[in-house]
Amino acid sequence: MTDITLDNVTKRFEDVTAVDSLDLEIDDGEFLVLVGPSGCGKSTTLRMLAGLESVTEGDVLASGEAITDLEPKNRNVAMVFQNYALYPHMSAKRNMTFGMKSAGEYTDEEIEDRVAEAAAILDIEDLLERKPKALSGGERQRVAIGRALVRDPDYLLMDEPLSNLDAKLRIQMRAELSELHDELETTTIYVTHDQTEAMTLGDRVAVMNAGELQQVARPQELYDYPANRFVAEFIGSPAMNTLPVDVREDGDGYVAIGDGVDVRLPETDGLADLEGDRLLLGVRPEDLHADAATADTSIQATVSVTEPLGDTTLIHGEVAGTFAKFKVGARSSLRQGDVVEFGADLDRLHLFDDETGATLYHSDRSLETAEQPLSQ
Predict the structure, then answer these.
(1) What CA–CA distances, in Å, run from 166 to 138, 160, 172, 294?
(2) Does 376 map to a domain?
(3) How far apart are CA 206 and CA 208, in angstroms?
(4) Whole-number Å distance between alpha carbons of 154 and 166
(5) What does the CA dihedral 125, 130, 136, 141 come to, rounded to 10 degrees?
(6) Phi, psi dihedral angles at 34 (to 5 degrees)
(7) Collapsing DSSP states into helix, strand and coil, what is residue 249?
(8) Same domain, 247 and 219
């Protein structure tokens, strides 16, 4: 079992900084997901952990020992790739065992035992003599994972392993990967650009953007208390709405006022410091309720597009020129051009700095807590 530390790790490719001063601690046995848009540095980070990319600055440690300059073969790490990387002329079993003797001192009996154990865990015992062309996408993925498991790695790296599967199979494989980790308890670092995948799999989720770590926290905390506007809009589907407002005091407390927006803010320590500032009010589509406006909460939107989703209808609309999304009932009669007044859940409001995107306020949490940029 292994804990991993990235200490001020930076990776540059000539004049491009792919990963910038990354500090991250991954606990022994943890399933940590790195998530972010394409080009954010998550796969580069994974490759540095594997030893496939050198580290420009900083250190990588495993169980307190520096492995920054170790060759991949000396790290006892296994990696599952996006494209499975199976040899087409070899059986599933041969794919799983290929290179084991050159990578370590394994006897034939040990190799057989490890293959049998991994195949049983992954339910591929009947597939071991088949070649990749005779396997489905999900079966190939299991073989690729089995190839990693037979090496009994100190830590396991997965680079978007489900991205080539269809939607239904991805959901099935997510559940299987979660069960597999619970059984093996191997320290696992998993890369994806799919925030739903990240939220459902990770013990914690590390959100990256432009090479920098934005926030690392448990999935629910990321959703409830994003550290900045980027995290707020990246985590959650549909994304959080951010509407331009000013904070004003009206004698009864503080309100967020903007074109089409009039929402009373539950008071917390430090809210007075935001008075008069131009901010962004953050509210998730699921925390808005059609035709539920009151004197304390009113957001007026004009419908532009409706998307029936079966259990709900997603409304694309405009709030005084700002694009926003709302969820309404499954059989809504709203049509393009309709004007709807929404009420907001006052316990689920956020305020962001209009320039930096930093979180300044959560309506159910003190500002001191809201200002913590990372949640290790």
Answers:
(1) 9, 13, 10, 44
(2) no
(3) 6
(4) 30
(5) 60
(6) -95, 120
(7) strand
(8) no
Percent of the chain with pLDDT over 90: 64
- Residue 211 CA to its chain's centroid (Å): 15
Q: For residue 135, give the DSSP letter.
A: S
Helix (H) or strand (E) holding 78: strand 77-80
CATH number at residue 71: 3.40.50.300
Size of the chain in residues? 376
The sign one gets for the Cα dihedral 87, 92, 94, 98 is positive
**Number of domains making up the chain:** 2
Task: Please tell me what DSSP assigns to residue 226.
Answer: -
69 and 183 belong to one structural domain: yes
What does the alpha-carbon distance between residue 34 and residue 302 come to, in Å, rounded to a whole number? Answer: 37
In this predicted model, what pLDDT tens digit does every residue of 144-190 receive, in sequence order?
888 888 888 899 999 998 887 888 888 888 888 898 898 889 999 99
Asked, for residue 375, whether it belongs to a domain, the answer is no
Residue (of 204, 155, 194) closest to 173 by Cα position: 194
Q: Which of 229, 257, 282 is the last residue of a domain?
A: 229
pTM of the full structure:
0.88
Q: Which residues form the domain of 85?
A: 4-229
- Residues 104, 153, single domain; the answer is yes
